[in-house]
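batch_manifest entry 22 of 60
target: ABC transporter ATP-binding protein
source organism: Massilia soli
requested by: lab member K.T.
priority: normal
notes from requester: please return tokens only, no post-processing; we will run our own comparison against the previous entry in this batch. if the run fails, retry once and flag.
--- input ---
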Amino acid sequence: MTTPSLSTRDLTIRFGGHVAVNQVSADFYPGTLTVIVGPNGAGKTTYFNLISGQLPASSGSVHLDGVDITRHGAAKRTTMGIGRAFQLTNLFPNLTVIENVRLAVQSRARIGMNMFSVWFSHSELISRAEHYLERVALADRRDTKVAALSHGDKRKLEVAILLALEPEVMMFDEPTAGMSVDEVPVVLDLIHQVKAERSKTVLLVEHKMDVVRSLADRIIVLHNGTLVADGNPAEVMASAIVQEAYLGAPEHA
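--- output ---
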């Protein structure tokens, strides 16, 4: 098998006397989509926060392409290739939809605000941004200020921005939460497309088991902060520990 693009080793975080994530070790590979499941309070989002740099680990480590990035913050990890959607929003509410995505394209192109940016084609930036808006079905809202978007459209915009950053590792935390029924297929189709390209490492936290079944190459189960199962979907979902810890509970709507 290829070298893992992302690894965690004994990754742990404590809040006072509470261990929210407890010595979780896992490898994630390019071309695979791993779904992380578990009951409420299992540590799924906290594990995501440790990987993406929103929280500092109490102990253990995170590695990207074999490089220890444990001491790097979220911004540095983003530039190194870890992209995350559906965290606390980083959208610019007073800018338009197209401007938000253009900034992501510009960041990816390493243009920033340097003095030579004027020489990079503005039309090329806009063209790339429009491409990502089309992928998330937001082309008709390109000139709308983000503050005026619905919750579902804001989530789609976050996906467009994530795509524009072209990260090596793509992380989705409950991507369909809060979306209307007609909005859900757009985002799920996008994740299917990313998975089909087989070049990215995709991590997904999800409660809805129909979504898990349709997307997962692999399932990891966390329970009380501990990794209790890891393997192919059929085996993991059939295991006794999963039935007891998760699947036996009522599914979330």
